[in-house]
Amino acid sequence: MSWLVRDGEVLSSLEVADTMSTRMAGLLGRDGIDGALLIKPARSVHTLGMRFPIDVAFCDRQLQVLATVCMVRNRMSLPRLRARCVIEAEAGAFERWGLQVGDRLEITG
What we know:
The protein is mainly beta.
């Protein structure tokens, strides 16, 4: 099990999608997610066919948050050219975690 961490504080459990098949599947077909999903590499995401809205954080190579958006179902994000990965969670999670642009994240476990 991996964990998403900021400044020594565990924000959530973390699934990692880093193969073609796991990146393609993402959160499709799920009714929700406990924790978060890291998709790498990725510069944009979509919610086509998804069952719930999501929070998306676009991060650089060092996992610094470049931008965050809340995406409703059946939308496509604009690509973020400096982004190398994205973190997805259920809508409202980033507000609960206090996640902001500029935060530097870590993966442990």
